[in-house]
Amino acid sequence: MGLIALLLACAAGAAVAFEPPPRFAAMYGDPSVFERSLAKECVEPADSRRVTGITVPHHLVATDLIARGFRCASGGSYERIILLSPDHFRRSRLPFATTRGTFETVFGDVAGDESAVSSLLAACPKVAESALFSKEHGFHAVLPFVARFFPKAKIVPVALRVDSKREDWLVLVDALAPLVDSKTLVIQSTDFSHYLDHGKARRRDQQTMNALALNDPEAVTR
Questions:
Q1: Sign of dihedral through CA atoms 116, 121, 122, 125?
Q2: Does the pTM exceed 0.70?
Q3: Nearest C-alpha neighbor of 99 from the set 83, 86, 88, 75
């Protein structure tokens, strides 16, 4: 009986020591920055077809474009959002990082999908659990729009190191695929073109749209 009591006490102690998922404070505390862009962008949602994914910038000089992307998807009903962003500062020790944590925004909390994140970590050895999300603007600039448009959805945040390779991406895609269903929206939070003049940036954007229109992953890699 003494041994059983000791084991139960150890088990109880382990349960007490369990750390809850982290909370990440909002990086942007002024709601007016986001509210102005939402007021300007009045695009009607695409009710006639199901939107499975959007690509948006993540710099606040382009909040109108972020709002436009979200409005296009706002006719859908999503329970899970997979949010992909660069790991700008290479803080992840592996090619990819995720978290079970909750993000605070000016429009309320965005909760992590703990079960989905656990499944991703178990399925993909290239994904690490990380606290890098506390200072990663690729997530914090976009999450207020998630909170406003899809307040009940939970997120699977994935940060991709900028030096990750094609073979890493394929492993990640295989691990994420089981998490994507009719109630899932995939969001790519991206830099688009840095330090290019307007003409060169437009050409790069057109090349990207052409590759997407081909529905050819190899074209994207090239």
A1: positive
A2: yes
A3: 83
